[in-house]
Amino acid sequence: MQNSSLNFEFIEKLSTDLTVHDIMTNDVITLKPDNKVKNAKEIMRLRKISGIPIINNSGELKGIISIDDIIRGLEENRLNDELRVLMSTELITIHPDDSVADALRKFKKYKYGRLPVIDKDNLLLGIVTPGDITRKLLEEVERGSEDDEFFLQIKPLDKNEEDKDNIQIEVEIEGGDFNNSGQASSKVKRVLKELGVDSVNIRKAAIVTYEAEMNVVIHARQGRLIAEITPELIKIIVEDEGPGIEDIDLAMQPGYSTASEHVRELGFGAGMGLANIEQWADDLHLESEVGKGTKLEAKIYL
Amino acid sequence: MKLAEVVNQLKLEEIIESVDLDREVTGGYCSDLLSNVMGQAKSGELWITLQTHQNIVAVASLVELSGIIIACGAELDTETIAKAKKEDIPLFTTDLSIYEVAGRLYKLGV
Predict the structure, then answer these.
(1) A182·B61 Cβ contact <8 A
(2) Which domains are seen in chain A, by residue range?
(3) ipTM score here?
(4) Which of A2, B11, B18, B67 is the most interior residue, by most CB within 10 Å?
(5) How do residues B16-43 score in pLDDT, each as one tens digit?
């Protein structure tokens, strides 16, 4: 199993897709404006929380009492006062339909430890903290791993700020493994979709990666597929350890095949693979050494 | 034409019940050569084939076909069914031949 590393684009995509509703805590401890400051202090101490929303009898959000307010209460000896006099009433709130990215922006801007979630009538629906976001993102990542979605390496090509749009995907291909064939291509396709590449170029890339992947599965012992994606192009490199190609020009001819009868029965080995790649890639380069292996490099310009 | 309508008209046997049949069938494609389908079939087309092994699912998924019809009463591998379920690819069988399936689809205006 390969290491998976997550890139910034992935997190950004998740945080745009997820809404505050997906991550908020619904079961919120609340107090009323006429509760005492000392009650709030005790609840915070016992429940280890750092802020409590204050709502009126109709459930409308009236304020928030935070640790800072409590400290002020202690200093000024106002523990027996009602919360309404100490609570913060200038609130930064968020709506359930807002994206997690919106929430992250607000946390960054206002430096609060929590945001009350309210509906259009100012009714308190829940609360969201940076911890909720981290937890949910981790969950999504783990769920993705279970689905075998992220057993691939996606990483920016360069740490350079200018190159942050460049992404590299690397997937191992097992020779002879017809049960998992197509997985490398599927992963590349998924990433291209996530990146918003248009469907025509996704299709081109799918054909090129699939045929190159199948060539490794059919002919080689093992290989790997690397896809580099920049705003200008998709570069697909498939390298293998295998028998190599004796005559590349002959191999490129449609209908020429060295595949076994068994492979042909599966609907492969009709001598169309390289011809397909040549037809759909904008640029194709093949290098091969008999007895060692083959390296294919194809480009699709975006 | 909606896939559900095609399934109904051709009396296809649904292999995966959970799959959503509310997708548009934009055309048909007949081939048993995977590279040929990969290179030439268009997204939304319904693929008629005799191939029954699991690689057909990867092809259908990559090309975004609207489904696969296995003709001539051929039996599907269990791995193929499992994979199609996972990838959400509609899979059907029929005793009709490829020629008959294609002919009827064409007549329906697909």
Answers:
(1) yes
(2) 19-135 (3.10.580.10), 152-301 (3.30.565.10)
(3) 0.87
(4) B67
(5) 888 889 999 999 999 999 999 999 999 9
